[in-house]
Amino acid sequence: MYEFSYHKASSVAEAAGLIASHPDAKLMSGGQTLIPTLKQRLAAPSDVIDLSKIAELKGIKVAGNVVTIGAGTLHAEVAASKDVQAAIPALAALAGNIGDAQVRNRGTLGGSIANNDPAADYPGAVVALGATVITNKRRIAGDDFFTGMFETALEADEIVTAVEFPKAEKANYQKFPNPASRYAMVGAFVAKTASGVRVAITGAGPTVFRWNDAEAALSKSLTAAALDGVKASADNLNSDIHASADYRAHLIGVLAKRAVVALG
């Protein structure tokens, strides 16, 4: 690691003040991405601002048709929450299949979406469920939050504080995990929401995206058969040592069908 100054913030306001006064600082929640990056000397922040002890960033609340999850809530806590399991079972199941037990007991919702790894699971839920990302400054629609590979709509001194997930009539997430990391080589989250059917694909491209052709087909008939003949394009998909763009395009169709079947 390179040398840096470490700060353990006790409130969002304190963290915001620190990041504003240290423009070369990095925020850290669970540290599942930042710590390995620092160890490999791929980042050299002047300061690291630890958000892990900020109580106001933690917790799960269900009010009406909305599940609000604090940005500092662990994956394991989302997976184990009876409230989430009852309100949005697909979201609890998604959280329970992130990484391994060690990752789930350190990684956080806010850290995952703010990092926006192309293969992360949570972005699929945020987009498919039409969630709203809440920061210390504003509210951002899930469709507008993820802008590119490891890029989001967040400003340099902006901190994710919570995510509001509307309940879906039906939802399911299917992924093809990398056998080593358990990151999604491709993940498909299908949700029947108040505004219609939404299909979000993660792992396949530089960032999460909605599969519009599938949404159009499933809006007419919410059946796996409706996706027969609907093919995902390999254009602009990721191609690496794990899978080619063509293979990922094939997986998109397979996993979307599995998700529709699981909707029941």
**Helix residue percentage:** 25-40%
State the name of the first-level CATH class of the domain at 170-263: Alpha Beta
Unreliable spans:
none
| Helix count from the secondary structure assignment | 11
Topology:
Blueprint: E1 5-8, H1 12-21, E2 26-28, H2 34-39, E3 47-50, E4 60-63, E5 66-70, H3 75-80, H4 82-87, H5 89-96, H6 101-104, H7 109-115, H8 122-128, E6 132-135, E7 139-141, H9 142-145, E8 146-148, E9 151-152, E10 160-166, E11 170-177, E12 184-193, E13 196-202, E14 209-210, H10 212-220, H11 245-263
Parallel strand pairs: 1-3, 2-3
Antiparallel strand pairs: 4-5, 5-10, 6-7, 6-10, 8-9, 11-12, 12-13, 13-14
Question: What would you note in describing this structure?
Answer:
By secondary structure, the chain is of the alpha+beta class. Among the domains are: 1-49, Uridine Diphospho-n-acetylenolpyruvylglucosamine Reductase, domain 2 (2-Layer Sandwich), CATH 3.30.43.10; 170-263, Enolase-like, domain 1. It contains eleven helices and 14 strands. It has helices spanning 12-21, 34-39, 75-80, 82-87, 89-96, 101-104, 109-115, 122-128, 142-145, 212-220, 245-263, and strands at residues 5-8, 26-28, 47-50, 60-63, 66-70, 132-135, 139-141, 146-148, 151-152, 160-166, 170-177, 184-193, 196-202, 209-210. The strands form four sheets. Strands 4-5-10-6-7 form a five-stranded antiparallel sheet. It has a four-stranded antiparallel sheet with strand order 11-12-13-14, sandwiched between helices.
